[in-house]
Amino acid sequence: MRSLEPTSPSPAEALLHGQFASWESSGNNNSSSCPDSPGGGGLSPTASPAPAPASNYALTLTHTHIHIQRLLPRPGKEARLLLPLSELVGCSCPRSPAPPLLVLYWYPPGKRRKGVSRRRQVRAYLAECRPEAERWSAAVQCLLREVPVAANTEFSRSLLPRSRRLLLLVNPFSGRGQAMQWCQTHILPMIREANISYNLIRTEHQNHARELIREIPLQEWDGIVIVSGDGLLHEVINGLMERPDWEQAIKTPVSILPCGSGNALAGSINHYAGYDMCLREPLLLNCCFLLCRGGIRPMDLVSVTTSPPPSKNSHSASARRLFSFLSVAWGFVSDVDIE
pTM for this one? Predict the structure, then answer.
């Protein structure tokens, strides 16, 4: 959360305004604080919070922030907080019999030794009734999904587009063999918090992803997510371009979540998004955050056609075409070294 010194938003800026009670467990505002957390873990829906001093908050939602003002106990230090929607990945209203909670999930950047790393933060607020919690949850999700809204909008789940559907391709052997572990601990919790549905497939051998992408019905998916390094993305790109419907297939959004030994494209995307240079888990969290926010940008490809290999039956040989998204290299360097 961010301290807020400026004045509160004007009535013209406010989309919603309401009062909520605090909901905390053992003084922890992370994933274990909230029942039915999409990220996994947490209290059971019928559990009660640990005894804590009663706190009441006034929440105001604008197009860019959630303004949080503590009313009780008496306002003092850190009584007014500001949550930028740009750092929010999702929200939820757990189903009954859980209390009528508004649960917010966000990943603010924080300084660490090796680059900038996002740290998962969760805060839950108890509404007076379930319809009020559901109204706030729908309003926040509308803003995150860029649904046009105004102060007179009647917020409900009917305004929301359907949940995005992603196909996750994971190479369990990529990098240092940590892809599945990082997928379970970092990627899947954030995707669930963003209300995204997914299907996960582990690749089993070289060119498995290439073969799969050539055949699957792409209309079932809103995007393909590579949980590996640049090599698996190379397979997917070439699989898309080898399809009979390649002109439409290559328009399918493709994302990379860096879990390999070579993550150059993920590093470039991180730089393009304006984030500080980082590696390993901080880079993965940044890329996963960008995926959940849903931004799509075009990217050029390089087309390379090789000459057919010389042979006695040269009439039967054919040129080979492949596509690259980073660079192209061949064995010319070794010839220079030898000579």
Answer: 0.84
